[in-house]
Amino acid sequence: MRETDVTCGNEDRGAGQGAPSERPPRVPGAASGGAAWLLRPEGGLDRPDHPVFMGARQVGRERPGAAVIVDLSRVREITAEGVRGLLRCARTLSEAGAPLLLAGAADDVARLLRTVLVDGTIRMYATVEAAVAACGGTAAGADASARDTSARDTSARDTSALDTSARDTSARDTSALDTCTAGGDRTAVPEVIRLRRETVDLRAKLRSHPLIAQAQGVLRERYRLPAGQTAFTLLKRSSQTHNVKLRTLAAALLRVERPAPGSRLWFPERIRGEAPALPFLPDVRPGEVHRSTVVKRVLDRAMEVVGSDMGDLQLADPAGLRMARHHGFSSEFIDFFSHVGEGETACAMAAARARPVVSDIATDRVFSDTAREVILATGSRTAHSIPMTGASREVVGVFSVHVPKVRHSPTDAETAILLDLATRAGLWLEWHERTVVLDALEDLHQRALAAARGAAPRRPSLGSPPGGYPSES
C-alpha cells in the first residue's frame, strides 16, 4: 500500500510536510485548506483492521482536518467486513474533522459500494483527480501513479462525483443486491440491508455529533466554563426542563444571536405570544401541550383523512428535513429518510416550493434510485407531501401520506382538510420554536451564568411557562 500526501492547501501553510512518503509537489492555485492524504491499497479489502484503515486513522490522529482519499483502482475484492471497516474509518475521521473520499473503484466494486452506502455518506469519485479537486486542489497534485488512473475508460462514469440519484436505473445491476462481496463470496440480501443501516447510523452520528459538540464549544467560550462536561450538562438540563430535544436546543444556540455582554437576560424585551389554537386537539390547552403530542396528532389526522396507514412528518432543520414522526414503515425506510437534504425526495421538493407535491413513486424523477427502491418496498405507490408554514410564511415542516394506489388523488374536501391542518400545525410549530425553544435558551443562559460564577442557577422571571414542563427540584 502506498501513501501520498496531496497538497490541497495554501502554499504558505506548508501543508503536506512529514508525509509517510516523500513530499509531493504543491498544487498551484489550490484553495485554502489542509492536506489530502492518498492511500492505495491493493488486492482485497476483506477485514475491518485492514492496513488502509489503520493508515487512515493515523492520518486522522496526526493531521486533524486533512482529507483522506482511498484509491480503489487496484482493489479487486471488497467484503462485508471491508465495508464495515470503511464505515468505522469514516466515523473516526469525522471526529477529527476529516472527510473520507473513495476514488477509482472498478465497476463491480463501485456498484456494491453504491448499493451499500445508499446516499453518499462516504463520497465516491470516478478518479483520484476528481477527488483531489473536491478537496480544493487539482489533479496535478497527485503523483504520477495517481495520474495513471486517468487512463481508465471513464466513458460510462462521470468524472465528477458519482451522484447515485443521477445514475440510470439500468446501471444498478441487480446482482449487487444479491451479494455483499465484489469479486468474492456471495452474501445474502439481509447483509446488504444491515450494512445500509450501519451507513445511515453513521450519517445520523455525523450530523448530530458536530452540532452538539459545536454548541458545547460555544458555551465554554462564551461563559468561560471550566470543562466540556459542564457545558453538556447545562444543555441536557435545559433540554429536559423545557422538554426540547437536545439537538433542537443546540441548533437554536448556534442560530440565535448571542446575549448582550453583561446582560442577565438573553431576551430582556421578549413578550411570550399566545399559542395558536389547535382545533384538532380540542381537549388540550395550546400553550401547555408538548410538541411531540401535536406532531403525533397532525400525522394521525392526515392519515385518517386520506384513509392510509402510512405516513411521516418531518420538521425543518438547518440542513434540510428531519424525521419527527412516522407510522407504518419498515426500519429501513425510517433509517434511510431520518434526514432529507435538498432535492432528494418529494417532501424536500414540497418544502422548497412551499406548496403540496403529489408524487408517483415509480416514475417521479425527484427520487434517487435507492430512495425509490426503499419506498416501493413499503408498498407505497403515491405520496402526498404537504408543507406546514408559519405566520412568517417560512416552511417549518412537511407531512407526507403514502397510499398503495398508483396516481391516487384526494377529493376536494379531503384536500381542504389537509391544507387547513397544515396551516394550523405550521402556526403552532413556529410559535413553539419562537417561544418554548427561546424559553429553553433563556434557562440555559441563566444556568451558564451561574456555573461560571460557581453559584446555584437562578431562573429568570419569564411569566408562566407552559404547564407541561417538569418542575425543577
Layout of secondary structure:
Blueprint: E1 2-7, E2 35-40, E3 43-45, H1 51-62, E4 67-71, E5 75-78, H2 80-95, E6 100-103, H3 107-116, E7 123-125, H4 128-134, H5 144-147, H6 175-178, H7 189-223, H8 228-241, H9 246-255, H10 291-306, E8 310-317, E9 320-327, H11 331-336, E10 339-340, H12 346-353, E11 357-360, H13 369-376, E12 382-389, E13 395-403, H14 412-453
Descriptive keywords:
six-stranded antiparallel beta sheet; 13 strands; alpha/beta; Beta-Lactamase; Transcription Regulator spoIIAA
Radius of gyration: 25 Å
Please, how many helices?
14
- In angstroms, what separates the terminal alpha carbons? 59 Å
Low-confidence stretches: 1-33, 138-190, 463-473
What is the level 1 CATH name of the largest domain? Alpha Beta
Largest sheet: 6 strands, antiparallel
CATH topology of the largest domain: Transcription Regulator spoIIAA
Tell me the number of strands. 13
Quickly count the domains: 3
- What's the SSE pattern? EEEHEEHEHEHHHHHHHEEHEHEHEEH
* Coarse structural class: alpha/beta
CATH superfamily (homologous) name of the largest domain: STAS domain
Amount of helix:
40-55%
Given the C-alpha coordinates, what overall shape results? flat
- Looking at the overall shape, the CATH architecture of the largest domain is 2-Layer Sandwich
What's the assembly state of these chains? single chain
Arrangement of strands in the largest sheet: 10-9-8-13-12-11
Let me know the average pLDDT: 75
Q: How big a fraction of the residues is strand?
A: 5-15%
Keywords: Transcription, Transcription regulation
Pfam families: ANTAR, STAS_2
Domain STAS: 68-135
Biased composition (Basic and acidic residues): 1-14, 145-156
